Amino acid sequence: MRTERVEPGRTAAGAGQAPQRAALCQAEDKEAVWSLLRSSKMGSKQIAQETFDDAVQENITEFEMDPEEAVREAVQQFESQGVDLSNIVKAVRQPASENGQKQKHEILLTLDSLGRCVADSDLNEMAEQLVVFTDQCKEQLAFRYLAGQNGAYSVVFSACQLASGDRNLMLKAFCTLSAILDGQPDLLDAAGQDLLLQTLKEYREDADMTLAGIRCIRHACLKHEQNRQDFVKGGVLPLLTGAIVQHGDSADVVRTASSALRIMTFDDDIRVPFGHAHDHAKMIVLENDGLRVLIEAAKAFTDNSGVLSELCATLSRLSVRNEFCQEIVDLGGLNFMVSLLADSIDHPDVVKQVLSAIRAVAGNDDVKDAIVSAGGTDLIVLAISHHLANPQICEQGCAALCMLALRKPENCNVIMEGGGALAALQAMKAHPREVAVQVPALELLIIHSGLVLVVFTALFSFT
């Protein structure tokens, strides 16, 4: 197999985000931006789908390999050269037709069928093709990416418009839109944003339609700051909190809407110099009573750890101001967190989210005392010991204990008497290479031992 097809990446790993941000901000069109992102991913090289397909076909025709062996050989050769194949469909394309026209991958054949249904306004056939296309998109990112590069969004958007007024067909179309947007938020345009917002407004009493619309918004906003800002300006926040209130008995709606609110507070798009995460968090709390909505929603799902974990994660993202932390306690959020930690101690995903939330609200000194009084320190130590092999839980647990001890000598004594120092040492020993665990654990020990002055003296002595 020839190797000259490889397109080397332009950005080496470890070059830092500042140069990346500058280059991305200077890129004038969306395709240029994504090209920069793809080339900078872990310093890896990129190839086009056609390059991979040609290599597979070459293995079959020139080296007489069977199709499966040809694909394996192509994958091995490209990966050995440091090529990222995460967006590549690793399958054999059908041989060229008699007229020499290249055949397409199955996902593109389905897309063509869907496009014909949309063009002909054949609603019955469109419904079937939407289901098939959705299932294929959900299989892997490579399928979605290939479809997205070949006009899938415009076809699916047209299908959503064509389905207007037919509730069941709209559900299928929006599920397809959600599938194609998963991992490809840049596909969504202004018309798509307006369609989603209008649908949430018109179908606010329909739990299934609300869920489908929110899933689309969630995928569209993850790692995409401009979409987040556009949706917030379009009024999505009251629609999300309203969905939680309106459908408070639906675990799927509450969990997905809570997740969407949380994503609105992310700063995860390296294409922009700064985001509006903090502003969005304040808007959720101050303008949409977000804290009360989330804490009240938790009361309906006392036995559903998945929903409670998501609500905790969102509360953690909203604890951006001193008064917000206190409000969470006043609304009963702290009692809910402590009870959830005690009841779900065997569920690592839940434990991690609760510890993160406790760590966040403990930024308020008065809340620190409330957490200690509620027995939170003992539960945190228990969580670390119980999940000692889990670095994320050890990180969040040690960080939470460190936050509780900061500026509070009396809390520090309670933590140490409850085995906090031993738990921190065990975490450091269990994860010697995890900096995220070592730092908060060491900080906790320093706070307790009064070694701050010694550390600063040592630092200045060797500068």
From TrEMBL:
Recorded superkingdom: Eukaryota
Region of interest (Disordered), ranges: 1-23
Keywords (A to Z) from UniProt: Repeat
Nucleotide-binding found in the keyword field: no
ARM repeat residues: 332-376
GO biological process, one term: hematopoietic progenitor cell differentiation
Annotated InterPro entries: ARM-like, ARM-type_fold, Armadillo
Biased composition (Low complexity): 9-23
Name by which UniProt lists this protein: Armadillo repeat containing 6
Gene3D superfamilies per the UniProt record, alphabetical: Leucine-rich Repeat Variant (1.25.10.10)
Source species of the chain: Cairina moschata (Muscovy duck)
